[in-house]
Amino acid sequence: MVFIVAICMLFGCKQKDRNIEISGKIIEVNSDSDAILIEAESLGFNGIVWIDISKKTRFKSGADKEFSRGNYVEILLDGGLTGSNPMQARAKNIIVNE
Q1: pTM, entire model
Q2: C-beta separation of 97 from 76 below 8 A
Q3: What is the pLDDT of residues 24-60, one digit of tens each?
Q4: What band does 13 get if pLDDT is binned at 50, 70 and 90?
Q5: Which domain holds residue 92?
Q6: Whole-number Cα distances in Å, 6 to 75, 77, 86, 96
Q7: How many C-beta atoms lie closer than 10 Å to residue 78's C-beta?
């Protein structure tokens, strides 16, 4: 619970108009809802984040469009993170997926 409160204080419960880049390993792929669950390594803590992938999500040249468990990803988020547990975000750009 303290963890969630700390994250909300750092990032706000919902950040708008701010793009954040995160990276980590994919630990689950949900093809039904076009989302991936990653263990983030770049937010100043180790935590999990659901990332929604939409038709608007762009893939940098060379980034694989197929997601697999264990892949390393770098993602530019669209609008920031929610304060839910696990946190949630939308992908704006997939920079690396390997």
Answers
A1: 0.76
A2: no
A3: 999 999 988 899 999 998 755 568 999 999 999 999 9
A4: very low
A5: 2-97
A6: 23, 20, 14, 29
A7: 17
